[in-house]
Structure formats: C-alpha cells, structure tokens
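// run 5 | inverse folding | seed 20
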C-alpha cells in the first residue's frame, strides 16, 4: 500500500468509526429491538415479526403523536423561515451595533436548550407566568381567568411550537444571511435602476436566487424538528392528555420510562422512512432550483 493511500485510510478511519459507533450501531439495534420482545431487565431476545408495529399502529397515542409531529414540524418551519428571512434582510444592511445584534440573535442557538426551555417553562407557568401577570395588570384578562399556556391543548401546542421556533430561528437566519451576501450587488442595483421596488426585487430576484439556500435551511430545520423532543419533554411532557406528544417523545416515554424497549424502538423506526422521504424530496427540489 502506498504511503498516500495509508494516510488517506488513517484520516478516513476516525470518521468511519464515529459514524459506525454512534449512528450505525444504535440504528441497527433499533431495527433489531423493533422485531423482538426486549424490555428493560430482560435477558433474552425473541423474534416476534411485525407484532410491535401492529400494536403501535392500533394505539391512539401513536396516531395522535404522528399527527402532532407533522403539525409541530410544519408550523415551526413556516414561522422559522418567515422570521429568518426578515432577520437576514435586517442584519445584512450595515448599521451601528450590528455585531452585537447578531450575537443576541444567535444566543438562543448557542445557549443550552434545557436552560432556555426551563426559562420558558417559568414564563408560561400557570401560576407564576410573567405573561399572565402583564395581561392581568393591563386588564386584558381577569386575575382568576388567565390563560393556561401549558394546560390547554391548543395553547400548549402553540407554546411548544413558538419555543422551538425561538430556538431554530438563529440557525436558519445564519444560513439565509450567507445566501443573501452571496448574491452579487450588481443584480439588485440593476433592478433598482429599472424601477423595481423593494418587494418586487425581493420576490422576483432575491428569493428565487436564494431558493437552494432556503431548501437547505428547511431540510435541516425539518430534520432537527421532527427528531427533537427536548422542548416537548421540558415544557409539557407530552401533555395535557398526549395532545402535544410527538413521535420522539412517545418513543422515549414508551421505551425508556415505560420499559418497553421493543415498542419504543418500533415507534422510532417509523421516523426513518418519513425522514428519508423528506430528505429526498428537499434534495430533489434543491437540485431543480440549481438547474434552473
């Protein structure tokens, strides 16, 4: 083997080992558990075929979690992309203190999500909520009729969507800001000379040129959101009555806290084809945008 080949193998091996140990092995175990009868504390494994998947499909909690996962992902991404576009346009223009503002915008992304979510849990608390305190003192709601942000099904889902959007907006803003700065200045300047206003330039020139970048931001956002359970776990733990339960949190509650590893693994495996289909669709759209 030539020295250059050995060097290539040596540099590639850590990445291959990392992917195999932290991604490949857990994924293979999840598939193995999903067709077995493994529970926490069991010492054997027996093949049960698709029985776990049949049980999961008949569960109302799973069907509710599947619907919630799509609602949670779509609503979050709509809010994130709109807000990230606005922030990217605002932060692209030079102004005094732009570096500080960019740091503050990035803060929710770099701060530990558990810290931010616990802060939001206090803000949305049914008794100590600062939002309710403000609404009561502005006489917009009655003291004993304040909104139960995490106790009402609709408000609870809206709360987890908004908190997760607050977490994801900085990441998408950075991606879109990079896309905006890559557009040659001559193009919007030529459009301005031809009489195009801000909105016409933005919707007919800027957004079409940024379509591949937006697709990348949406792809990462969808994957991060569809597989994340941190906000749901800290704020509502899937409640009230499983109305904010999503597939990752349901798999965790069933497999880890409920000790049914096989059924928890079966729920997790449902995420794989959905995410693969979404990734292929987004990459196909991005490829078409690049070709055009």
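// decoded
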């Amino acid at each position: 083997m030539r020295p250059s080949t050995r060097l290539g193998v040596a540099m590639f091996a850590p990445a291959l080992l990392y992917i195999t140990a932290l991604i490949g092995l857990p994924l293979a175990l999840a598939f193995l558990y999903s067709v077995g009868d493994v529970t926490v504390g069991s010492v054997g494994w027996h093949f049960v075929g698709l029985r776990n998947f049949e049980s999961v499909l008949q569960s109302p909690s799973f069907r509710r979690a599947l619907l919630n996962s799509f609602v949670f992902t779509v609503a979050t991404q709509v809010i994130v992309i709109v807000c990230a576009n606005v922030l990217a346009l605002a932060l692209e223009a030079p102004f005094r203190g732009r570096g500080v503002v960019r740091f503050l915008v990035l803060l929710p992304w770099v701060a530990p999500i558990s810290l931010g979510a616990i802060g939001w849990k206090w803000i949305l608390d049914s008794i100590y909520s600062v939002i309710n305190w403000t609404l009561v003192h502005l006489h917009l709601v009655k003291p004993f009729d304040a909104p139960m942000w995490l106790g009402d099904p609709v408000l609870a889902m809206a709360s987890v969507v908004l908190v997760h959007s607050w977490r994801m907006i900085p990441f998408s803003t950075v991606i879109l800001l990079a896309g905006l700065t890559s557009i040659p200045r001559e193009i919007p300047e030529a459009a301005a000379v031809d009489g195009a206003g801000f909105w016409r330039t933005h919707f007919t020139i800027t957004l079409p040129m940024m379509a591949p970048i937006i697709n990348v931001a949406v792809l990462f956002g969808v994957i991060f959101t569809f597989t994340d359970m941190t906000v749901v776990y800290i704020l509502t733990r899937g409640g009230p009555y499983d109305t904010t339960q999503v597939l990752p949190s349901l798999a965790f509650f069933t497999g880890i806290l409920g000790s049914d590893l096989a059924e928890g693994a079966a729920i997790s495996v449902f995420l794989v084809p959905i995410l693969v289909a979404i990734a292929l669709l987004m990459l196909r759209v991005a490829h078409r945008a690049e070709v055009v």
